[in-house]
Known about the structure:
Shape: globular
Order of helices and strands: HHHHHEEHEHEHEEEHEHE
Structural class: alpha/beta
Distance between the termini: 43 Å
Helix content: 40-55%
Low-confidence stretches: none
Number of helices: 10
Strand order of the largest sheet: 2-1-8-7-6-3-4-5-9
Largest sheet: 9 strands, mixed
Radius of gyration: 19 Å
Number of strands: 9
Strand content: 15-25%
Amino acid sequence: MTTDPFWRLGQFLSAAEARRLADMFAQGAPLKKALDEIHSSRRVQVKAALADAGLTHQDGEASARVLRAIAGSRSVQTLIAPVWTMPGVQASIGHLTSEARKVVDTAQISVTCSTYNFEETSGLWDALARATDERGVTVTAYVDGTAGQPATVAAHLRRATVMASRPLAAGCAPPRNHAKFVIIDHRVVLLGSANFSYSAEHLNIELGLRVESAPLAESIEKQMRNQHGVLYERESP
């Protein structure tokens, strides 16, 4: 691994983190204030990485330019691969749906996910709990207001934000939440046909895509946030 501090900083920061830090430094914010833009579980590491690269708030605009370059380089990176569930003979090209739990286990900042139904048999059931309870990762889960077991999911993911689809008008059934995806650290998107269940992860024939693209990840997350209080309501633990 290279010892270049700028390369290591660029590998560690997400595009969103680098952009937020750049904005804070450009505004002349002190380092402590700028680090408020970083999740608490990563602040010590980010502070050390910035120091190694010599980026400080005293030289705010110069440091901001470096951070914007990092944000730009992370944003344009796009890698796409298929994600399969195939019973019996496993797929030999791409990734497996059952590996989603391993990807969640690598999350350092956030996990945003959505499914129609969320069953305890899913590998994501415990992986998401580990992320919030053991590593302090910010988890937001969108589930169907009826089939998604919102109350059960919220009780299990006590530190997560669980959003359930809600009726558009009194007396109407809530819209079905058929959006199925997992987004890791505002960068890696797993998008496909599989629900969060053992059968979808091991027994069915399912196809999805793994896309490494910060702009795609951030646009999906923004679109979903915009529906809070409109198509989704928060489920209390």
